[in-house]
């Protein structure tokens, strides 16, 4: 086999450039990052995996940054230093071939072709085996070939987000989760790809660390029986973790099947992924923050703040520090008025899981204002979320009281069918980004409380219409009106308005 499809040179990373989505190689993505807007893909997992790959290459090429000042220098220069990046990519060029007889990128060259699996197993949103179909209606029988670019991106996604479960291949009965299979990932984004990469380029010590392309290629003999075990530590090692053994099978113009087997089993070590936040549970243990099927992430935002014993994602803290240092600097090509509007946003990416199943893929976008992590910003955020939850709980109780007055104790499902609580939270989903954008300002809480009242009133009006005008309904609504007024009055008294 001749080496084929080099990821440094071939176009495969989808980016937004001058308003159009195009594909570029790793070299162009890094060296021309200042000319590209962002990675642009419908999949939040693909977005996160591609950024982690580019960050791993940058950390190793630049052997840093050692300090925040290094990031500031590159930001002010408006581009990455070309020489070190070119030299690094040239030195490891042979390790970036998607197909290679000895060292295919992120794969195991001697995995047998017998009992292959469809390439769709690499992506949770595609139908494969007993995976639930999320956004796709193909089957394994009619599965189209993946292009080389699609296969490369799917490979990255699987190595980062594969869920643990039964495997039964090459002496391994079950496999562990990939490193970021379940946490929410925090990705600050700037005005262009350069700024986004710098906002996530957390200071780094390169010693005792190496990405997958800097270590000897894995062989089946390394992985059989679960023999391969590495410490789950080292920034770029974790960013490029080989969670599964994969060998893409080239059909000349695409990939339909792959060899598949166990990967490297993680050994616990003192390491925290820079994109992951943690919260403190009731027993004093740190747990990673996850996305929930039932609620938007913003409702759990304050759980990671130090005020509640949590640990903010290092990327979020780094972006906040960087914004503080760049207070007088403008994003590339923007006027002062425009710069204040769209300086930095925060993308929260990941998958919602239940044991070995993926229930949803999520991308939530919020403003990331300077001062979010200052004492005033943290205090305002904590108060705002607490008040929203307390009023939400009060509305839930109101819904059950109204339901009991209408149908009695027999049918609690009727209470859950009322739109009161659901519409309240839906309205706040839209209001929260505006509050967060000015969270450190003195007047932010007053404006948020008005949003809480507005959301509650609109939800109550919709609930009145939902119930109708029967005698029992009108009586229940009259009783509910008193309780609703009490809830809003309590909010006003609590905040002194």
Characteristics:
15 helices; 16% strand; three-stranded antiparallel β-sheet; 497 residues; 17 strands; alpha+beta
Largest sheet entry: 3 strands, antiparallel
Percent range for helical residues? 25-40%
Poorly predicted tracts of residues: 330-342
What is the number of beta strands?
17
> What is the global morphology?
globular
Helix count, DSSP H or I runs of 4 or more residues: 15
Structural class: alpha+beta
Strand content: 15-25%
Q: What topology, given as strand order, has the largest sheet?
A: 3-2-4
Give the overall average pLDDT: 91
N-end to C-end Cα span:
75 Å
How much is the radius of gyration in Å?
25 Å
Task: Please write out the topology.
Layout lengths: L3 E3 L6 E5 L2 E5 L1 H6 L6 E2 L4 H19 L5 H10 L4 H10 L5 E3 L17 E2 L29 H14 L3 E5 L2 E4 L9 E5 L3 H7 L20 H4 L5 E3 L3 H5 L4 E7 L4 E8 L2 E3 L10 E3 L5 E3 L25 H12 L10 H6 L3 E10 L2 E11 L7 H33 L5 H5 L2 H18 L6 H24 L3 H25 L2
Parallel strand pairs: 10-13
Antiparallel strand pairs: 1-5, 2-3, 2-4, 6-12, 7-8, 9-16, 11-12, 14-15, 16-17
Helix pairs in contact: 2-4, 2-5, 11-13, 11-14, 11-15, 13-14, 14-15
Q: Could you characterize what this model shows?
A:
There is one protein chain. The chain has 497 residues and is of the alpha+beta class. The chain has helices at residues 26-31, 44-62, 68-77, 82-91, 148-161, 193-199, 220-223, 235-239, 314-325, 336-341, 375-407, 413-417, 420-437, 444-467, 471-495, and strands at residues 4-6, 13-17, 20-24, 38-39, 97-99, 117-118, 165-169, 172-175, 185-189, 229-231, 244-250, 255-262, 265-267, 278-280, 286-288, 345-354, 357-367. It is 40% helix and 16% strand. It has a 3-stranded antiparallel beta sheet with strand order 3-2-4. A 3-stranded antiparallel beta sheet has the order 6-12-11, covered by helices on one side. Helix 2 crosses helix 4 (82-91), helix 13 (420-437) runs antiparallel to helix 14 and helix 14 runs antiparallel to helix 15 (471-495). It starts with a strand and ends with a helix. Residues 330-342 have low confidence and may be disordered.
């Amino acid at each position: 086999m001749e080496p084929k499809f080099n990821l440094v040179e071939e176009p495969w990373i989808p980016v937004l450039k001058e308003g159009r989505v195009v594909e570029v190689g790793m070299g162009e993505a890094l060296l021309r990052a200042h000319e590209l807007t962002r990675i642009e893909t419908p999949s939040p997992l693909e977005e996160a995996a591609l950024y982690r790959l580019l960050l791993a290459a940058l950390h190793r090429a630049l052997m840093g940054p050692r300090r925040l000042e290094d990031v500031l220098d590159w930001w002010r220069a408006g581009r990455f230093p070309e020489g070190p990046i070119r030299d690094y990519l040239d030195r490891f060029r042979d390790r970036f071939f998607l197909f290679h007889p000895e060292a295919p990128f992120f794969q195991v060259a001697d995995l047998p072709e017998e009992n292959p699996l469809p390439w769709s197993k690499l992506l949770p949103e595609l139908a494969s085996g007993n995976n639930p179909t999320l956004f796709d209606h193909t089957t394994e029988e009619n599965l189209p070939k993946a292009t080389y670019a699609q296969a490369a991106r799917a490979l990255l996604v699987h190595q980062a987000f594969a869920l643990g479960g039964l495997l039964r291949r090459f002496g391994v009965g079950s496999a562990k989760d990939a490193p970021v299979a379940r946490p929410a990932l925090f990705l600050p984004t700037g005005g262009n790809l350069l700024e986004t990469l710098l906002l996530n380029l957390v200071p780094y010590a390169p010693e005792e660390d190496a990405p997958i392309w800097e270590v000897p290629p894995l062989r089946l003999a390394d992985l059989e029986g679960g023999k391969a075990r590495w410490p789950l530590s080292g920034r770029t090692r974790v960013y490029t973790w080989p969670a599964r053994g994969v060998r893409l099978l080239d059909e000349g113009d695409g990939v339909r099947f792959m060899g598949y087997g166990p990967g490297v089993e993680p050994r616990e070590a003192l390491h925290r992924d820079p994109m992951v936040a943690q919260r403190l549970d009731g027993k004093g243990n740190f747990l990673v923050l996850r996305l929930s099927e039932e609620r938007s992430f913003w409702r759990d935002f304050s759980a990671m703040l130090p005020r509640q014993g949590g640990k903010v994602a290092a990327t979020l803290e780094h972006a906040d520090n960087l914004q503080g240092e760049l207070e007088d600097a403008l994003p590339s090509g923007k006027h002062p008025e425009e710069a204040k509007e769209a300086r930095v946003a925060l993308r929260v990416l990941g998958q919602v899981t239940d044991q070995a199943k993926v229930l949803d893929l999520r991308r939530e976008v919020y403003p990331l204002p300077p001062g979010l992590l200052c004492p005033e910003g943290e205090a305002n955020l904590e108060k705002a979320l607490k008040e929203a939850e307390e009023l939400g709980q009060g509305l839930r109780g109101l819904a059950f009281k109204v339901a009991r007055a209408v149908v009695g104790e027999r049918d609690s499902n009727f209470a859950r069918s009322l739109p009161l609580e659901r519409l309240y939270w839906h309205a706040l989903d839209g209001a929260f980004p505006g509050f967060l954008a000015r969270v450190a300002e003195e007047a932010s809480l007053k404006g948020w409380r008005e949003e809480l009242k507005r959301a509650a009133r609109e939800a109550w009006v919709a609930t009145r219409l939902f119930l109708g005008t029967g005698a029992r309904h009108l009586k229940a609504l009259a009783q509910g009106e008193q309780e609703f007024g009490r809830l809003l009055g309590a909010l006003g008294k609590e905040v002194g308005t």
